[in-house]
Every structure is written in structure tokens, then in C-alpha cells.
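Sample entry (539 residues):
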Amino acid sequence: MRIINFKTVNILLSLLGFSQISVASTYFIEAAKNELPPPQLIAISFDGSKSIDMWDSTVKMAKNNNSHFTYFISGVYFITQSNKNIYQGPYRNPGKSDIGFGSDENDLNKRVTRMQSAVTEGNEIGSHVNGHYDGGQWTYEDWQSEFKQFHQFVEEVFSINKMQPIKGFDEKSWGAQIRALIKGFRAPLLAINENSDKVLSEFRYTYDASRTAELGKWPYKLTTTDTWQFPLGYIPIVGTAKKSIAMDFNFYYFDSKGLDDAVNSETYSDRYYESLMNYFNKSYNGRRAPLNIGNHFSKWNAGAYYNALEKFVKTVCNNQNTPDVHCVNYSDLVEEMNSMQNQYPNVLAQWIKQNKVNNVENNFSAIMDLTMTYDLEIDQIIIDPNNHEALSFELFGDSVSKFYRELSASSLQKTGTTVSFKVWPLDLSKKEKLKVSIPQSEKEVLSTNSLKLKFKKISNNRIRSTFNYKTAIRHLGIGDGAYTFSIVLHEHQNLKKVEIQSATRDIKIEKGRITEIEDQNQENRAREAELPGAHMGEE
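Predicted structure, serialized as C-alpha cells:
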């Protein structure tokens, strides 16, 4: 059964004089009532939203795949080029914007009608403010000015541009509609601070989608405001030892440093799609926290990322094998979270707390041919402080005892869960990815496919393996240098191997000793591709 969330549609219907649609329940409430695990919700969004053609194609994509998207629009696209001087961003001259402006009256009319059509289809409009500047150091007054100008540009689009309203269109009703609809925000360059948090609260916005978080992070509220935080996923880039924000621009910057490379478009598209699918599968078979994926109205690298997103939406959002997966807009997600807080707060707390969704039949086998056999997690790789030649990692979870028993019986050769060991030079431009196997000649070791490991039981739900890095790399013929060590947990089913989890550690080998390479702050890593001015041009 599909539950349709009509919040944004009701606002539009009421403003147009029609009766509102009654909303019976939400996806989360239905699951809680029936004591089921949380459904997997996915929020897909677009920043900037200038191109008329992209409005048409993305709304069609959503409609054809039983999805609702969120569009974070930029106020400067509701100003004609000839009228651009009415905008002044903080510490900028009037008429300046890093992403340009709308073109003429015809362009603005098309954008307004496309927005209205998108909302009618159940999609949502949010704010991306105006000139696409880095507001990380802005004052409260700077943010307040930026939001005031944004709402004026969008709500008063006809009067401020001295345009005749579209036939049958009332600007007063339009302004009221926009004020009622726009309750969410994503910052340009994801650059926010405590002042933006304060202004969002004062403008009565209900959510901010500007932060980032590792896989499994549920929505949360700051201690200082009542605004929901929906962080973009910080996800592994499949085929590498790196991570990125789940956003097209960040993959574009990772792939080609922000320079178009049409020749490798298919490779880039496959990597983005596989990374999104990996993000989905880890969550769907894990904590079921809502997924947050960001995009733009740009077809970088010959449409690589747009094509991958469209494939992802077709694969995930409208699949009969996964009736508990729903692609929703952010306002609907706010309603989902609020409903649970008000009606089933203890159930919500348990969903957020649990490490895995246990005893859930995986209905996604039609897509990935994957059946979860164990409930396992990988802890981080640790360097032994007393032995700088030793690396350790742990497996933990409710199925550890079962895994340990079956591993000891060597029953995991063709099916079930296996562990593999990989090494990457940090500078991938110089050497290809390396994969190593512990030699089989060692005694009293347990076979886990490509890696031979000894496991020690730490507790009923935790086992540890410690190995000497020299044993792992002695046949590689590599010398001192910087490397990424990776422990990878796989599921095997029907002769297919699918990576489901991994733990990595960047280390330096020097004169027989392992030392850790200092990791940067997660927030800085997450924003490494979101450089000031990187989005110069249209969105």
C-alpha cells in the first residue's frame, strides 16, 4: 500500500480555493502501529534550479517513478538580467552573483509555471537563498538580509521586475503560497553557522539540509533550535578508498577536478550509480535512517551524474519488490519525524538507537541478488600501540556467535559472509589498486576467502582479529610509503559477491614501523569539493 503525503499539495489547493485532501497516516506511523521496522525513506533534491528543460525532465522523472523531489531554488533566478542591481549580497556590489540571474520576462514566466506544476505533482520548493556565496562567516544581519531578499524576489517576482502577471495569475495569492510552502533550506557550498541557524528559526523554517553525516545518522534537532537537520550522506566512492558527499557536484570534482571529461562519462556514471546503490543497500539492510541525496540542474561530464541518478530512481523508488522504500520530499520527511515524535516517541528512539534492522526479509534481491546472512558490523582498523607491526579490527553484532561457529567449521567458502583484505597506495595515479591475501601456509588460521585470519572471541557479540602487516604485504614488492588498508565484509549469494561494509585506515610504512596518517576533520573532508567559487556559472 502506498501512503500519499499531501501536505504541500493541500497548501496549494487551499490557496486556489479547492478542498484539502485528508491525510490518514504516514509511512513511519504505519510501521510503528504494526510493530514493523522503519521503512526506508529517501530524500532526493536539486539545488539552484534554473534550467527550464531540467524542471521538465526532473518533474517527469519523479512522476514516472512514484517519487516526490525537493527543489532548493535560488532567488536570483527570479530577477531579470536588466533588473539585477536590486540584489546585493553580503560584502558584494549590487548586481553580482556567482550563478548569474534570470534572463528576461519570458524566462521568469516559464520558471514560475514550472514551479507551480512541480508542487501540484507533490514536489516541494525550498530555499537556496541567492548569489551562491560562502556564508560560513556571515553575521546574523547578513543572513537575515539574504533571506529577506530571497523571499521578496520569489514572492514579488512580477512587481519587482515590472512584469505583467501571467494570465489568470494573482501575485498576492502566489506570495502567500510561497510563504506557506518554503519551510526548508540548503546553504550554498553547505556553508552555515550559528547565525544561519538562528535566522532559520526566526523565519519559522522547519528543516535545514546543509549538514553532512556518516551512513546511519538519523535526522536530529540542534539543542538551540527546533529545526530538523537532514544531513547529506557522506558515502564511500565505490572502487576507491575515498568518501564523498552524496551529491553530483562532489563526484564531478572527484572524478575530473571540476573539468568536463565527456570521454569517461560512462565510467563516472557507473561509479556514481554504484555508490548510490551501495549507500542504499547499507542503509536498507542496516539502520534504515533516511537517505539524503543532493543534485543540481547541471549535466556535468556529458550527463554522467544525471543519468546515474535517473537509473537509481528507476531502480529504487518504484520497485514492486521493495514496498517499504519511498522517495519523499523533505516536508513530508518533517511530517514523518514529527508524527513519530508525537505519537510513538519510544519507537522512534529505538529505531535511532539500534545498530541493525534484525530479522527483516530483504526484498531487494531482484535488484542486487543479495540476501543478508548475518547481522555484523566492522569496527575500525587499529594499530597496536605496543607493536607497530600489528593491525587489528573487530566484528560485532547479534550474529557474531553464529558467524564464528560457521567460520570455524569452514562453511563459508561458497556462500554467506566473507572478509577480504585490500591495500591501496594513497597516490592512485602512480600505482594500480593492490589486493593481497595472507599466505595459506600459516597454521591454525580460519579461511575467509581471500584473507586468512585468526579470530579471538572477546565477548558474546564481538570477535577480534590481529595480523602482522608484513605478512600481508611481503609478496607485493612495495617499499616504504603511504597506503590505505581496508577490511571488507562481503555477502555471497548465488555465486555473486557484494561488498556491504568496510573499514579503512590510512597508514605510513617507514623502516618497518606503521604510523597513522592524521585524518582531517570529517566536516572539512565532506566539504573538500565545495570550494568557494566552485559553482561559478548556472545551477
